[in-house]
Amino acid sequence: MGQRMMAQTSAATGGANPVPAWLRPASYWVPAHIVDSAWLTHGSFAAWLIDVLRPSDVIELGTHNGFSCFAFAEAAKRLGHAITINALDSWEGDDQAGFYGDSVYRSVLSIAEDDYAESVVLHRGYFSQTRPAFVAASADLLHIDGRHGYEDAREDYEQWRDTVRDGGVILFHDIAERREGFGVWRLWEELAEPGRSFAFEHGHGLGVLAVGDIVYEPLRALFHADAATTERIRADFEHLGEVIAQLARMPHLVAEVDSLHEVVGVLQAERRRLGEEITVRDAAIESLKASSSWRATAPLRAVGRLLRGHR
Fold first, then answer.
1. Which of 28, 146, 166, 253 has a beta carbon 3.0–4.6 Å from 212's, enabling a disulfide?
2. C-beta atoms surrounding 69 within 10 Å
3. pLDDT tier at 259 (50, 70, 90 boundaries)?
4. What's the domain count of the chain?
5. Which residues form the domain of 163?
6. Higher pLDDT, 310 or 5
7. Cα torsion for 48, 53, 58, 64, to the nearest 10°?
8. R_g (Cα) of the chain, nearest Å
């Protein structure tokens, strides 16, 4: 982080080490809402992309807990940039991500209404049912993150690609996931073109695809990065994303610590109970030894010990 700050200072003063195009101030922002998501480590790139692309309309196919949606919305909010994010999901789950109850939708709706009422619009239903509500060339950014089978991802792309205006971007999540049932990687290999696409390999993979002319210079630099620069970009965004992932783990760590404290408390209570039982037992033994019956039976105990010694 110190080296990056030095690079920023050098660039500001006309030094020899200008700030790379992908390390804008927005790249270091942390989303306000960090919820469970496979998208966590792409939060920094989301802020960078909103800063560079400045989209007025976003369509997201697959919102689930809302992390990517809120990352886009928070970046636009901090930039003072007017945006409309259309978040589409059935909010019932599927056989890949698992099925879940209505509480997930209610949670996303609550955050959207409380913090992003002017920018986030939720569309509950299946993508194909909602498609007629959007005309061609109506969005600057399309994020495809629905079902992850090859046929499903291709259907989403073919049905929705014409909603993106010239100069826009399409994002594909899970392009690096090759487990059984996942086929976005196949679609990405078919669509990716040198000079018009960029692939992140961390966080299950995120593909960035240009639509039409590449209008913004930072995006052009991203798409035209050579092999060495590509690795630097990937490494930097993976590092920045891991910071967000670590913050997401904090509540779980706190819960684990609290749980351990409870276990320690139980063990300490058990130790006190055993100590009290030992104290009572020792007192009873001392009381017995001090009794007249104990003294009267002393010869019998001595004979018993003698007999045991001769066995």
1. 166
2. 31
3. low
4. 1
5. 2-250
6. 310
7. -20
8. 32
